[in-house]
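From the shared-data thread, chain only:
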Amino acid sequence: MKQIVTLFKKEFTELFRTGKATVLLIVFVIFGVMNPALAKLTPWMLNLMSSSLSDAGITIGNITVDAMTAWTQYFKNLFMEYILVLALFCGTLTNECQSGTLVNLLAKGLPRWKVVAVKFLSALAVWSVCYWLTFAVTFGYSAYFWDNSIVPHLGLASFSAYLLGVWLLALILMFSAFLRSGMYVLLGTGAVYGVSAALGALPTLTKYLPARLDGAFGLLTGALAPGDFTASLIITAALSVLALAISIAGFQRKQL
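Structure, as tokens:
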């Protein structure tokens, strides 16, 4: 237990010392503020543009914004949030393997599975705090300006998007256990997601794939029902655990 605590201290000290965690927190808070802010400012911006648009023959009718407008922006920003977190952690294991900082620790008897576990849990903690912070800020402002109750299945949709991020982090760690470059790790993770998204074009497979969770916004619009996500949620969670197990097995055999 003492080794795990020491590793956690090392991970978070590095994250805050380099400023990565601080920058990520600030960016995610900005995302949270932007979602309702853009919705609130949309009618005002369109009103400013109305005169020039009318000269071009474009007429703008009455624009109504509500909580759904803010949450639409929230789900649009998720892709960028995934990219930011994956870019931050794609070198979490490969960089230490290249620099040799783990060699002394492992030579002193530190089990390799603890390194993998702490790396994943540290990344998961950062992702969880940042993601739910953005959610909380968006929810708070949307509740203040409008009414969140008009947005159906918001909790399930948000959790689905969150679990997709957990799976992507597990993939990052899995590829890190075998590859030596953070760029290759990022490309490998993107390739797996791309395959999942491509297979989603097959109606018989789509409800079982992790990429289905990327369409969680459909729950808000009514295009999809909660039952459409049951299988993908279970399978994505299982694949995340499997990726973590493969990470441990792969790192056990990796030469540093």
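The radius of gyration is 21 Å.
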